[in-house]
């Protein structure tokens, strides 16, 4: 469903501020794979996600989504293949629009617009049932402006919006990092349920090593723009944080330096 071949990206090339963010990344995700991504500061995690989304054009390499080469496709065109939830709860929704309007916008992504009633009663009923699955009481607040919701509620709405059209690939970019621990766990559990229910191919960046181990069927660790190791199956199920730190040290020859991840 997703294939990345020899991906390279350097920011500010040829200057004293040159920074190699991706240095030959190779990655294949089969349909239904739920891959968590962990790594230190500047490891290339977000740059890789942004390259997949089309925010950055790679210097070299290829990105394939469901066998289609999207490497040179602009961001707005490849958006129809992707769902994305950002770290900032304010980014995934339109704050001045109601819950039902936000969901309708997501449901109409990529469709032609015409002169007809905006949201039908059947659609309202469908969205109400979808919101019930969140168990947040939002099914009774369809007309509430999203800007009045809490961060966790907004991320839950964004998850529904990102998955409503069953994207080829779902990108979760540290989508619980800005939430308090209790809300973060609620949103993670919702993410896991939505991904399982729709069999979504997913890449989830997280700074929390325990979450990286607990969720998904594969775990990749990045360092200096490369994938250091890719763990799946029974090995991942039996993995501990200590194992991850030892593997990192053995492969890189240095200590893992990310206070946020270690404190989590």
Question: Could you describe the 3D structure shown?
Answer:
- This protein has helices at residues 45-53, 75-78, 99-107, 121-132, 151-163, 181-198, 209-214, 233-237, 241-252, 259-263; strands spanning 2-11, 19-29, 34-39, 60-65, 68-69, 82-85, 169-173, 202-205, 218-223, 226-232.
- The strands form two sheets. The chain has a six-stranded mixed beta sheet with strand order 6-7-8-3-9-10, sandwiched between helices.
- Helix 3 runs parallel beside helix 5 and helix 5 packs parallel to helix 6.
- Strand 1 (2-11) and strand 2 (19-29) form a beta hairpin.
- It is globular and about 60 Å long.
- It has 264 residues and is α/β, with parallel strands linked by helices.
- The protein has ten helices and ten strands.
- The chain has a single domain, classed as Rossmann fold (3-Layer(aba) Sandwich).
- The model has no long low-confidence stretch (mean pLDDT 89).
The helix tally amounts to 10
Hey, roughly how much beta strand do the residues contain?
15-25%
Shape: globular
Largest sheet, spatial ordering of strands = 6-7-8-3-9-10
Classify the secondary structure makeup into a structural class. alpha/beta
CATH level-1 class = Alpha Beta
Please mark out the parts with pLDDT under 50 across 5 or more consecutive residues, or reply none: none
The SSE order reads: EEEHEEHEHHHEHEHEEHHH
Task: Specify the helix fraction band.
Answer: 25-40%
**What name does CATH use for the topology?**
Rossmann fold
Strand tally, please? Answer: 10
Average pLDDT? 89
Give the end-to-end Cα distance, rounded to a whole number of Å: 31 Å
Domain tally: 1
Largest sheet: 6 strands, mixed
